[in-house]
Amino acid sequence: MYGMLERRAEELRSYRALRAYGLSGYEAKAYIALAVNGPSTAKQVAELANIPYTKVYDTLSKLEAKGMAEAIPGRPMKYRAVPPSEVASVVREHLSSIASQVEGALIEELQPLYESRGAMGPISGVLRRLRDLDAALARMMGGASSRASIHLGWVDAPYLDRLIGQVRAALSRGLEVKALVSRGCLKSPRAKELVGLVEARIARSVIPVNVVVVDGSQAIFTLASMVGGRPSRRLALVISLRELVELIDEYIEMAWSSASEAPTRYRT
Fold this sequence. Notes:
Elements: H1 2-9, H2 13-21, H3 25-37, E1 40-41, H4 42-49, H5 53-65, E2 69-72, E3 78-81, H6 84-116, E4 123-127, H7 130-143, E5 147-152, H8 157-172, E6 176-182, H9 189-197, E7 199-203, E8 210-214, E9 218-227, E10 230-239, H10 242-258, E11 260-261
Parallel strand pairs: 5-6, 6-7
Antiparallel strand pairs: 1-3, 2-3, 4-10, 5-8, 7-11, 8-9, 9-10
Helix pairs in contact: 2-3, 3-4, 3-5, 4-5, 7-8, 8-9
């Protein structure tokens, strides 16, 4: 029985999964031996999993520390496997925590440095998730030194919620913020709220995209496919090529010059 398990252990999906999770070969085979054989002495585990006897106690101690095995007091002492379903839950929580830490560190720390070098050329980021767009807006608006221009071409309520929060923060820092808003957007209470916060003008017709430009040097260009008046898929481009940002800024200024002033009733 021992030899049969040893020959098969490395062929098991469980063995490969445990190794991918970070267990050593000895640890993976020892856990499988305990799960298959039930409570066992260190000597039995060594024989079953073909682990050198000089290594088996250290291996079992590491499994205990990882919450995958438990010692059963007695003479001789035995060890038992924590049920695989419980181990799977612990692994899931652990990997989820690691993934969140890695994602946060990469997006919050490395991505701004990556973008500042223009590593992707004119488009330094492609954002598909709303929380990534929110983080990019926060970085860009938070790093603005003098002004921000907003072009609101279509209503995206979740986007507006986040944008308005960033606008309020920017205004509290003394930033100059202005918004060019499509007349059709004024059906939205959130768009009216934005218009009431900043210097705004209303355009009869604008390109159906949402754009934020800060200091004439960075822009976030957001568009979406619409279903039933709501965005079914959103895509945002973080643009860092100065010549391209300047062209976008010039378009907003040109449209601004021919737009009408926002009604005073929207002022808060």
